[in-house]
Amino acid sequence: MFNMDNVSLDFGGGAGVFDLNLSLPHGAILGMIGPSGCGKTTTIRLLNGIYGPTSGEVRVFDKNPAKFLDVEKARIGYIPQHFILYPTLTAEENLHFMGGIYGMSTRERGEKIPTLLEFVDMFDARNRLASKLSGGMKRRLMLASALLHDPDFIIADEPTAGIDPILRARIWENFRALRDQGKTLLVATQYVGEAAYCDQVAVMRRGRLVTVDTPTGLRRQAMGGEVIHLQVEKGQVAKCERILGKLPKVSRVERLPDETDGLFVYVQDAGKELPHLLTVLREQAVKTPKKAEPYLPAFDEVFVRLIHKAEDNQSLEVAL
Prior knowledge:
Helix content is 37%, strand content 25%. By secondary structure, it is an alpha/beta fold. The protein has two domains: 2-214, P-loop containing nucleotide triphosphate hydrolases (Rossmann fold, 3-Layer(aba) Sandwich), CATH 3.40.50; 221-295, Lrp/AsnC effector binding domain/regulation of amino acid metabolism (RAM) domain (Alpha-Beta Plaits, 2-Layer Sandwich), CATH 3.30.70.
């Protein structure tokens, strides 16, 4: 759907985005995750042709987006960060207005708008003024307006910002349904936990990509493999640490500061190695652990670990 090859847009003074290498296949969701000011919106504006790069190449539909014709622009559905529809029009009137911009006939709009309002769960609010809609409903109305002309590529900039978790989950249900219909989506968000909903995740920091991977791959990167969480008898923690640390498939064993009986055992494949670890402990006369299961860190922890790794690597490069 798009390719960014060594793309930079330098605003000066360290602001901008730098050395972006990013692509997205058809029919997938790419989540772009990072704190405010990290370059997510700038990256989006490069993709929709609002900005041009100072170096590198941006290709969307295998073409420079800054040179798009109207027919190519219509293949993109864009949900900007802020609500931009008319507050004095109803939800349905706003959709008719947007359809008119795209050259849709009254009949075409009349056929599509009710279905879209149902899709975003706003049919009952169709006659409500946009100024009277809640923040979550405004976001969903923006989504409906971006889908009205049936685009191939949907770009959403912070579509769940400032709304409650229930509505965020509902919007992501819409996104996954669109993906399953064959649409391609790029979703920028500050909510790290939303990485779980994506097929690929790009983590950004200070205008640069930290990494791009699947949600599972991000966990493996952050933890240095997969992790088994054990809780053993307090008197056997040191013995377990010593026994497991000698195993060839164990990269390291770590005591947990908030669990006096807890250990993290780092391996490449937790599901495969867990039965073997339990067998070894049993053979060494260790009591059966109270807990023995693969550990899946929350994405907040994953994000923090990835950022710390990036900072450590940068410090090492500066030192060298």
